[in-house]
Amino acid sequence: MYARPSSSEQPASHGNLWGNTPRSVIRSRTNSTLRLNILGRLVAAMPFGRILGAGVPIVLVVGAIAAVTVGRGHKDTIVHVVDVVDVPRVVAPVVVKIKQPPPTPMKGSFVALTGMGDDEMASQGFALSEPMEVRVYAMGEGSGGDMYDYGWIVDAADTETVWRMQYEDTEHAGGAQKNRMIDEVITLDAGAYMVYYVSDGSHSWSEWNSGAPSKQEAWGITLLSPSGVVDGETVGEYAVSSDPLVLARLIGIRDDANRSHKFALDEETQVRIYALGEGSSGEMYDFAWIQNVETGRAVWEMTHAMTEHAGGGDKNRLFEGTIVLPAGEYVLRYRSDGSHSTDNWNVSPPADLANYGVTLLRGKG
To answer: pLDDT-based confidence at 277, cuts 50/70/90?
Structure first.
């Protein structure tokens, strides 16, 4: 440690180190090989907190302490103030991204999930009163046989996927080779459907990290009438919340979740269960179960042995099946651990990540 200077060496005032001079850098020189900033002399004479309080940058203070420590052994050190140079304050530019308005839907469309950005998940329901040919126009990101931004269609009555954007069915969409598209006509039966689209964290309509596709505004999925005219008597709206077949639903499960949903059955009912979770080595970490309110006992539980691979990472598990429950009151419950969920997938997500969780539907029988 260095010795504290005598009172004669201490400055007369500690209020402002530089008087009325703005925050500055002081350049100095000596008649020895050691260059010592005058700030070092003041550091030795003042409490550390008061120096910082005077507005001196901490980088200069630390450098001065080092210089004083080394220079204490040099009696011939003479410090001269050469000049005072003002340092302008540097203000970092603020970049504000303004979300673009959604693109205008294509003519003849009745579902349009387009203009999709990074890390987005969107869905829209529709209903058909009779079988209908549907044109599917979808654009997304894919490479090496896998899709990263893609869409799919699910039958709302039984949660079965009736169409999915597969890499092998796509073609180049212009721009970077990973821009993929599909334009085809499929036939759907009468019923209710949900359309989903998901994207990863890069390369989308919000910001392209390589060449943009030829038809940028169509990034997403669109369903259209092949004729270009939508028959309002055939095509209608559908909302899961108003579907009488849905008994209970807990989806969009996040980390450390503990969710529940009560439902009641007036009579013995076939219940279709569609559950997605996480499990490995015979154990489940994200899983669902059904509890009887009166007895408090579980009448069904999602175990690893009853599940199958749900796509993506091996630990993504799926249960699809039907059970019969007697009349009564029940609670559908779901619990998850602290990782791998819609918060953040630590391996590839399941194929139907939009429905991660559990859905109970009335059976068709």
So the answer is: very high
